[in-house]
């Protein structure tokens, strides 16, 4: 029953959950083999069989429908309306989660302190803290704010001493970025914080950290809309030798 749904998840480069719970509710799963529940899915087993899945780390989000064999025009129309309603309900649920995540992110960022230059991660990467980078006073984790194109904080990324990176649960990453510098002539869009700081220190250009490769395009489009005359450079990671 679930094979097609699982294949749809795999087709997006994600790792499917070990089991599918078909109760129409949201369930978390490890979508990227990181040991963290960065993914979520919803599966409806009743006709028309449909589902939704998302990876919060990459921003990948898809709706899926198995299709139905019903030929009666009235029932077909009912099925279609049912699918559209499910999709709308899911969008509203995610929007509400994002709103809650943004509030939590703003509070945690406000309560944090400036990043310590001697933080083990910064020392290991041989980089210095930049404006806007903070640190949790209790856990010691670095806190990177994630902003939307309107300038509001929508989520956070935390980095521990060993370099482990975590996004705030239910926070929005897609389209979000962390800015270094203020130039509007040259804008470099990269993935991670350490890469971004290194580029900023070497060039003095404005750098936007998009956090992952799947978000580079979204951030580039938003940047082009806001700065139509800027010279935009995409500095994606060279992953050609990375397994997978």
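Sequence proposed for the structure above (244 residues):
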């Amino acid at each position: 029953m679930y094979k097609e749904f699982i294949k749809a998840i795999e087709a997006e480069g994600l790792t499917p959950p070990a089991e599918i719970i078909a109760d129409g509710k949201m369930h978390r799963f490890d979508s990227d083999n990181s040991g963290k529940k960065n993914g979520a899915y919803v599966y409806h087993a009743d006709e028309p069989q449909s589902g939704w899945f998302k990876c919060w780390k990459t921003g990948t989000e898809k709706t899926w429908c198995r299709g139905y064999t019903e030929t009666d025009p009235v029932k077909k129309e009912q099925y279609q309306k049912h699918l559209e309603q499910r999709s709308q309900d899911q969008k509203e649920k995610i929007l509400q989660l994002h709103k809650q995540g943004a509030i939590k992110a703003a509070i945690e960022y406000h309560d944090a302190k400036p990043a310590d230059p001697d933080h083990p991660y910064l020392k290991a990467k041989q980089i210095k803290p930049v404006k806007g980078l903070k640190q949790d006073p209790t856990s010691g984790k670095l806190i990177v704010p994630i902003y939307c194109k309107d300038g509001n904080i929508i989520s956070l990324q935390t980095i521990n001493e060993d370099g482990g990176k975590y996004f705030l649960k239910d926070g929005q990453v897609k389209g979000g970025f962390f800015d270094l510098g203020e130039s509007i002539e040259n804008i470099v869009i990269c993935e991670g914080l350490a890469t971004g700081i290194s580029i900023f220190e070497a060039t003095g250009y404005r750098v936007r950290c998009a956090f992952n490769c799947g978000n580079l395009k979204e951030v580039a489009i938003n940047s082009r809309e806001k700065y139509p005359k800027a010279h935009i450079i995409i500095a994606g990671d060279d992953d050609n030798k990375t397994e997978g």
